[in-house]
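Quick start: what a row looks like.
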Amino acid sequence: MKIITIDEEIWQKLYNSINTIADFVRKQEDQSYNDLWLNNHEVCQYLHISEKTLWRMRNNGDLAYSKIYGQYFYTIGAIKDMLNANAVQTSDEYVKELMEKGKSYIEKGRRLKSNKN
């Protein structure tokens, strides 16, 4: 096996270049469906919502759409943008608390099952 050494500055430039290329490729993959148009029914199925909820989202300006001859159409990119704009960020503390509650729930459930035996 050969060991190759490289200057840290050159390594950092190479590393940054590789990450830039990887980010570009990821963006290209992610956008492949962004321009695909869906109708009301397809959006409702995709988001698991009713047509009334979709109507409210349109009227509130939450979701970009196009109207052609009385039919509404939405791009997957617009749906992703809406979902990302409304994403709720959680703190690490909240996630830890949630995990502890989950572990506690599982332990209690296991104790209950073992007590019945």
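That is the whole record. DSSP finds five helices and three strands in the chain. The CA atoms of residues 18 and 79 lie 30 Å apart.
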